[in-house]
Amino acid sequence: MDLTAAVESEVTIQPAETVLIPTALSIELPEGFEAQVRPRSGLAIKHQIGILNSPGTIDSDYRGEVKVIMSNFGKQPFVVRRGDRIAQMVIQRYARVEWVEVEDLEKTARGGGGFGHTGVSSIRGATK
Question: CA-to-CA distance for 65 and 21, rounded, in angstroms?
Fold first, then answer.
């Protein structure tokens, strides 16, 4: 769902500035659910506006107003007006787990390979 700005008057976000924007929305989620606040792709590509702490998690026990941490990564000021769509929110079920400490992990072909270890180089188009 879209989240809209509930600012009293226009808020200008200067380049390299971060502002907390209210939405006038409070939610009550059941246990086992979270809300994720995500950026809008149109604001990112057209205005270089992003959201810090993204996706931002709203826990089921939070009862305050949902606010969006907006940052201007561009070179031009960006104006937020009341009713502007500023973010998206997704409600998601999650599972609680119990951690078990072990001496060794099961072996896989990938092993400990991290970023870029999927077997395909996106830069050269060749396999590793």
Answer: 10
Answer for the pair 1, 88: CB distance below 8 angstroms, yes or no: yes
Which of 3-7, 37-41, 114-118 is predicted least confidently? Answer: 114-118
71-to-37, 44, 74, 84, 92 alpha-carbon distances in Å: 14, 10, 9, 15, 25
What domains does the chain contain, in order, with CATH numbers?
A: 2-93 (2.70.40.10)
For residues 5 and 83, is the Cβ–Cβ distance under 8 A? yes
CA distance 45 to 82: 21
pLDDT tens profile 44-76 = 999 999 999 999 999 999 999 999 999 999 999
Cα–Cα distance for residue pair 63/28, rounded to 1 Å = 6
Q: pTM for the whole thing?
A: 0.79
